[in-house]
Amino acid sequence: MSTFFALVFVAAIIGVFRPYKFMPDAKRWHYGVAAAVAFVLVGVFGPQAQNPPTKDVAQSAGGATKADEASESSPAPAPEVKTAWIYTEDRDEMRDATRKFAEVESENSVDLQFPYGEQSAFIMLRRDPQHGFDIMFRVRSGQILCHSFTNAYINAKFDDGPIRKFACDGSSDGTSEVAFIRDSKTFLKSLKSAKKAVIEAEFYQNGRVQYVFNTQGLEWE
Fold this sequence. Notes:
alpha+beta; 11 strands; Immunoglobulin-like; 9-stranded antiparallel β-sheet; 29% helix; 221 residues; 2 domains; two-stranded antiparallel ribbon
């Protein structure tokens, strides 16, 4: 459409200077008006130039790019630590308080003498409203040789640290499957900072045996 009006415009301009013989009644000013109208129509129907992106759009695009760059450059979140600790609690109705426990099972098991057989071991943390805080080393079945009337002890090694000796006591009810570690606060501090612990304890008719624990990720106040 714009091409047609452009041709009309050119023809009208020529007619201003040299009127056409086949239009004897047309005056020069007629051609001038026709040229002006055709010129306007060329502008109306001509292709429209695309407007450049507005400032807001440009800023939006720029902001998205910067956000993407920031996302790509930001460090990945630290992987979640997989822990072997199991947490439980129960209610002391008499004292209207809660007992809390954390326990981890050994990575290995030991074949103890008859009648006990293959046994894994456990490190248990207990916070009790009556007895306070305790750390226990225990097995499901066996005889750990830790008695309050002897100089009994267990050896412990945390990560690549030195071997440390911890005195231990037996259970007050005479249960042989449990040994209470005396310096529980020091032991707890080492547990919380270590990824691995090796416990060596003496068992009846088995001598000293070793258990390996994955201790990373312990959460205990």
